[in-house]
Structure formats: C-alpha cells, structure tokens
Design the sequence.
C-alpha cells in the first residue's frame, strides 16, 4: 500500500449530449462500413409486394383492398428480420460489456442505438412504401397516411423489438425466440397502423388511429429504454 | 485515497459448483494484484463480481465503505475495465474505437490525444485502418491504448497479456508497475510472471486452503 496520491488529471467531463452524440457517430460509422445492409429490409418489402399480385390476382380493385394491410405486414416483418443483429456484434466483441460498465445512463445509450436502427430501417421503409403501393394500385391519396403511420409505427416496432433483441442476445440462435417474444406486442401497432390507412382509403378520418399510434410510441419511448437496459444486464451476465 | 475496494466473505457459485467462498480482498492505492488459477476456477467470474456485473452469492463488495450497488456511479468513474473481449469493434478504425471509448468513459479527448495514445502502444500509422484488418495482437493494443487515454485509478484487466508480442508484454508490464507507483491500483487475471515479481501480489483461486 502506498500513501502517494495519484495525480488524477481531471479531463473535461462530457455531458450526456456529447456521450449520445459519440454513440450516434459510432452507430452511423458502423452502418456505413456494413455497406448495403440497410437495403435488406427494403428489398424484402419490394419482393413481397412484387410477388403478391402474382400469387393472388392482378385485378386492381382486389389489390387495392389488401394493399394497406399487406404493406404494413411486410414492413413489420422486414423490421423483425433486421432486429436480430441489433446487439449481436456488440455482444461478441465486448462493446456491450464496456457500455454496461460506462458511467453513463445505459437507457440513454440504448435509446440512441434504437434511434439509429429506426433511421436506417423504419424511415426508408416508410418512405418507400407508397411507391411500392403503386404496384398494388394503392390510391395516391393514401400516401401521406401510409407514410405517417409507418413512421410512427416503425419507431414503436424498433423500440419494442430492441427489448426482445436485448433479451435474446446471449442465446446462440435467438432469432426464432425473438420473433415469438415480440410478435404479440407488435399486433396492436399493426392493427392501428393498417387501420389508419384503411380508414383514410374509405374516406374517413385517420386521426384517431394515428393518435393511438402516437400514444403507443410515446409509451414505448418512455418505457422501452429502461426495459432494454435491464434486459441487456440480464443477458450479458446471465 | 483513490482506491478503496473491499470484498468480504465473497462466494461465487456456478452451475451448482462453488468456485470459491470466504474470499477476502482489500485493494488500496498502489496495490497490484494478480489473480491466478486453473481454467474454470472462477477468475473471470471474480472480475465480474468486482466490477458489479454479477451479484455475489454470498458476501459483500464495498467501494469506499459503501456497497458497490449504491456507489455504482462513483465506482465506474474510477474504473477502467478491459475484458476478455476487449470491446474493439472490428468494422471501426482504431481512432473511431478510441474516440467512442473515451466518450463512454465521459472523457473529452482530442484526435491528437488519441494519436498519441496509439503511438504509445506502437500503432502509429494504423490510426485509420479498420480493426478487422489488424492482427489480434494489434486489436488488443487498441484496447490497451485506453490505459493512457482514460486516466482512471482502478484498472481491472482480464488476461491483458494475451495475443501481444514480447515487446508489448514488456511495455504493458512496465505500464502496470508505473500505474502502481503513481498510486493507482490494478487487478488482473494472468498466467504471466512479472520481471519485478515482488511488486505484485498473487491471489490463487482453486487452491485448497
């Protein structure tokens, strides 16, 4: 034991905003290096939309009928497929352990990660869905509601999905379990999301359904980061 | 005193097997402790307990006299941990990895400071090379650059000597000793024997008491 005091240079202590920014920068850099990975969900959505008329019927009236639900289901599944990888590499290379031991609020770091996931999957899906809707004879008038509902809904899907991804990150083949865990929680989002578009098509007001989607998102933003952080602690040290 | 870490009557159980029990550990400024033991004797588990990642099955861990769970924030501001997987993202460059590590530690560093730290571990010229194009040893060196970049009194290192060459081993050994001389404390698991072995205390797990 020595009585010498260590000359602790007190470097500038970073605020939360800086820490989040660093996390954001890292996630974006990682996405850039991964290259075209962010295109996979879009490709999935496009494939479903292209194949569906071949399997059902090319009649415009019939397609327009199922278009809102179909686009929503395909977007939801595309999100689901992209979730498994959310924490996997971070877990494998020890980054997650560093995050858990950092003197930073873990829920905030998780939220930043989820925001990037949403920006790279949910937002492109929402923006492309109306264009693919054209293939399903979806009237152009439904586009704003489709984009809006998908933007709100996919953010909720990202947040809820991240809880499942965090819970299954330590398991060797967590993919199936992840789907089983979070699909039930996805159903309300799907019902109101597709419902909003359908109501708009029928000439009604999409506002109530959109408000409910917004409420679900608000709830998810408030609660999910803590659930994700808790789930990560369990998985990493289980 | 920067480092006051105490473990009393610590016990760890994994899969119905007691890895160790009644373990006492008192760490103060200047202490360097090496944890030894056969594979599977609970070295990494002990480090996870000491960093608060695992909850002990019996006993308690205190930081400056306070239970670790209560002093978590202060403890983590004093801790530098390099785990078995060193936390270096393969797709990112050395520079990007360290910028993130420093930010996570809550320390603001300039790009020049990162370059200096990388030069210290012999990675000059590799600042902007993605880690997956480097060797395992070089990747570990990126993690070790944190020792210079993020000033923390308590270092907890899991097998820090793996994968690095003879030069690196000598450097790291020196770095650990000088950290102790400056009043820092180090706990590490390793099978490596130090040149200046008298400065290092050993804790042997799995030996029958």
Sequence:
């Amino acid at each position: 034991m020595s009585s010498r005091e260590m000359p602790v240079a007190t470097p500038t202590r970073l605020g939360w905003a800086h820490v989040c920014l660093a996390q954001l920068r890292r996630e974006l850099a990682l996405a850039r290096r991964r290259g075209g990975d962010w295109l996979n969900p879009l490709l999935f959505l496009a494939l479903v939309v292209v194949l569906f008329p071949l399997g059902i019927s090319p009649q415009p009236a019939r397609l327009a009928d199922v278009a809102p639900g179909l686009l929503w289901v395909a977007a939801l599944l595309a999100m689901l497929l992209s979730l498994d990888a959310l924490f996997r590499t971070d877990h494998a290379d020890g980054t997650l352990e560093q995050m858990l031991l950092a003197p930073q609020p873990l829920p905030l770091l998780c939220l930043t990660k989820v925001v990037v996931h949403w920006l790279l999957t949910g937002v492109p899906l929402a923006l492309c869905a109306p264009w693919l809707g054209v293939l399903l004879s979806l009237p152009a008038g439904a586009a704003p509601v489709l984009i809006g509902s998908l933007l709100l809904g996919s953010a909720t899907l990202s947040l809820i999905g991240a809880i499942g991804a965090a819970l299954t990150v330590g398991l060797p083949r967590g993919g199936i379990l992840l789907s089983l865990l979070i699909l039930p929680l996805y159903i309300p989002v799907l019902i109101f999301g597709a419902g909003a578009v359908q109501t708009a098509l029928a000439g009604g007001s999409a506002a109530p359904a959109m408000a409910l989607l917004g409420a679900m998102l608000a709830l998810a933003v408030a609660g999910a980061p803590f659930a994700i952080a808790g789930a990560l602690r369990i998985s990493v040290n289980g | 005193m920067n480092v006051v870490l105490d473990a009393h009557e610590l016990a760890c159980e994994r899969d119905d097997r007691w890895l160790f029990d009644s373990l006492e550990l008192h760490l103060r400024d200047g202490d360097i402790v090496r944890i030894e033991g056969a594979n599977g004797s609970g070295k990494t588990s002990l480090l996870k307990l000491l960093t608060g990642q695992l909850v002990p099955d019996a006993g308690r861990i205190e930081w400056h006299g306070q239970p670790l769970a209560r002093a978590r924030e202060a403890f983590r501001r004093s801790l530098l941990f390099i785990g078995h997987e060193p936390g270096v993202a393969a797709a990112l460059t050395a520079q990007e990895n360290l910028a993130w590590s420093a930010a996570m530690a809550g320390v603001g560093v300039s790009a020049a400071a990162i370059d200096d730290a990388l030069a210290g571990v012999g990675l000059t010229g590799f600042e902007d090379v993605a880690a997956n194009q480097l060797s395992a040893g070089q990747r570990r060196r990126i993690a070790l650059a944190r020792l210079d970049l993020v000033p923390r009194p308590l270092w907890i290192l899991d097998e820090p000597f793996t994968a690095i060459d003879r030069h690196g081993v000598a450097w790291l050994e020196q770095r650990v000793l000088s950290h102790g001389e400056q009043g820092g404390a180090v706990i590490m698991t390793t099978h490596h024997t130090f040149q200046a072995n008298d400065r290092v205390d050993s804790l042997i797990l799995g030996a029958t008491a």
Q: What stands out?
A: Chain B has one domain: 4-205. Residues 10 and 59 of chain B are 4 Å apart (CA to CA).
